[in-house]
């Protein structure tokens, strides 16, 4: 938006879709205007959770009403337990009862849980309805709201049902993070650190300095740009997009061992990144100086926990994952900060390396 230098527009274009991403402090205030210009329908259904709704739902509803929309909403209980097919079913029923058509709009107002659940409902209702993501956590702003992955958990595992469905619009306003509890903000920092290690070491340098609000905005924008660029090259996660999994392979095993509540996602990814660096050092690929650099950042954002599980149990949790379908795994390694690549490892060598690194 030229009229507001604080708002920047990025386009994420894939073979079948185009996502408009608006970024900047104060961008939320333009939600009604931007959506009013882009979408034909005049009904909007906003989905939020019980923590976010009291903070933002009436303001966001008003912004849409001022631009001629009729607004309805669903508020789901806050937390991962809402990321279910039951919630999706409840959303479908609400969409039907408010007579939402394909010309109308669904808005996900919340963190990754609301974004993933609402995204999946929008992807499948009437075979796809207009979707706008308004991410309210750091993790959702730098990661889950961009790139089109959406879905829900099953009792037998996280994210086992889902789709690739690019949101038509994403509105990222870093000012919305002001209400975020510090530990949830820090949790999202694990993903920002990840972007630094995989693609742009200047993010790490900024995080190492005295971070102010402008710098936080800068690192969020840079993270979004990196994700946008990667998704545009590989929407379906078959090649380069896999580098976004840096730290997540071992991190996911740690989350699983803790029943998905002992460690937060960010803490697990943080420890996963550390283990991945150590593994790369053992293979003679990763620069040794990456470990103190990462440790310093993890300490800063209170993400440096002790790993309390045994190395063999971590290897078992990783290798028994339902999503592993072959005898090799694409493991993401870092050579030097800003430079990542996919390293194919047999499951047997990965097991041996994990046991060696985490003993
Ligand atoms: N789709 C993807 O590409 C992708 C990527 C990474 C993670 N995820 C998913 O994202 C989910 C985690 O997302 P999350 O960390 O945002 O969790 P979340 O959505 O549960 O939000 C964390 C907590 O912060 C509260 N909250 C949100 N915004 C707030 C605000 N501005 N002020 C005050 N409180 C606020 C929420 O109510 C919740 O209690 C997981 O389900 C994960 O699988 C998806």
What does this structure look like?
There is one protein chain. Helix 1 (31-38) crosses helix 2 (53-65), helix 9 (248-257) crosses helix 12 (311-319) and helix 12 runs antiparallel to helix 13. The termini are far apart. This protein has helices at residues 31-38, 53-65, 85-97, 112-124, 138-144, 182-198, 201-208, 213-233, 248-257, 265-282, 290-300, 311-319, 347-357, and strands at residues 8-13, 18-23, 43-49, 70-76, 105-110, 130-135, 149-154, 157-164, 169-172, 328-336, 339-346. The mean pLDDT is 95. The chain contains 13 helices and eleven strands. It is α/β, with parallel strands linked by helices. A seven-stranded mixed beta sheet has the order 1-2-9-6-5-3-4, with helices on both faces. The protein folds into two domains: 8-180, 3-Layer(aba) Sandwich (Rossmann fold); 185-209 and 218-357, Dehydroquinate synthase-like - alpha domain (Dehydroquinate synthase-like, alpha domain, Up-down Bundle), CATH 1.20.1090.10. A hairpin with a 4-residue loop joins strand 1 (8-13) and strand 2. The longest helix is centred in the middle third of the chain and has 21 residues, at 213-233. The chain is globular and about 60 Å long. It is 44% helix and 20% strand. Bound molecules: nicotinamide-adenine-dinucleotide. Residues 49, 51-52, 55, 78-80, 83, 110-114, 116, 136-137, 139-140, 143-144, 147, 149-150, 158-159, 176, 179-180, 184, 187, 265 line the site of nicotinamide-adenine-dinucleotide.
């Amino acid at each position: 938006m030229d009229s507001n230098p604080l708002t920047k527009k990025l386009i994420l274009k894939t073979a079948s879709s185009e996502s408009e991403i608006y970024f900047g402090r104060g961008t939320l205030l333009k939600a009604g205007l931007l959506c009013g210009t882009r979408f034909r329908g005049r009904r909007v259904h906003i989905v939020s959770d019980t923590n976010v709704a009291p903070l933002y739902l009436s303001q966001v509803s008003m912004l849409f009403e001022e631009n001629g929309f009729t607004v309805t909403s669903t508020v789901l209980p806050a937390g991962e337990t809402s990321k279910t097919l039951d919630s999706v079913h409840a959303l479908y029923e609400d969409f039907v009862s408010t007579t939402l058509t394909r010309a109308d709009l669904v808005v996900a107002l919340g963190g990754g849980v609301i974004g993933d659940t609402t995204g999946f409902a929008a992807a499948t209702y009437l075979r796809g309805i207009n979707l706008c993501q308004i991410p309210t956590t750091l993790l959702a702003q730098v990661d889950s709201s961009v790139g089109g992955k959406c879905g829900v958990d099953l009792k037998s595992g996280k994210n086992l049902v889902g789709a690739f469905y690019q949101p038509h619009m994403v509105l990222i306003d870093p000012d919305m993070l002001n209400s975020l509890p510090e530990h949830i903000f820090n949790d999202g920092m694990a993903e920002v650190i990840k972007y630094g290690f995989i693609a742009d070491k200047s993010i790490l340098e900024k995080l190492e300095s005295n971070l102010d609000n402008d710098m936080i905005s800068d690192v969020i924008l840079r993270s979004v740009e990196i994700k946008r660029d990667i998704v545009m090259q590989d929407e379906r996660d078959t090649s380069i997009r896999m580098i976004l999994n840096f730290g997540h392979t071992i991190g996911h095993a740690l989350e699983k061992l803790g029943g998905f509540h002992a460690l937060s996602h960010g803490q697990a990814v943080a420890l996963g990144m550390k283990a991945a660096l150590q593994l790369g050092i053992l293979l003679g690929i990763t620069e040794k100086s990456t470990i103190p650099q990462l440790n310093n950042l993890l300490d800063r954002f209170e993400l440096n926990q002790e790993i309390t599980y045994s190395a063999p149990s971590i290897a078992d949790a990783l290798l028994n994952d339902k999503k592993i379908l072959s005898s090799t795994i694409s493991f993401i390694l870092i050579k030097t900060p800003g430079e990542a690549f996919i390293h194919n490892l047999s499951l047997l060598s990965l097991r041996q390396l994990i046991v060696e690194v985490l003993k």
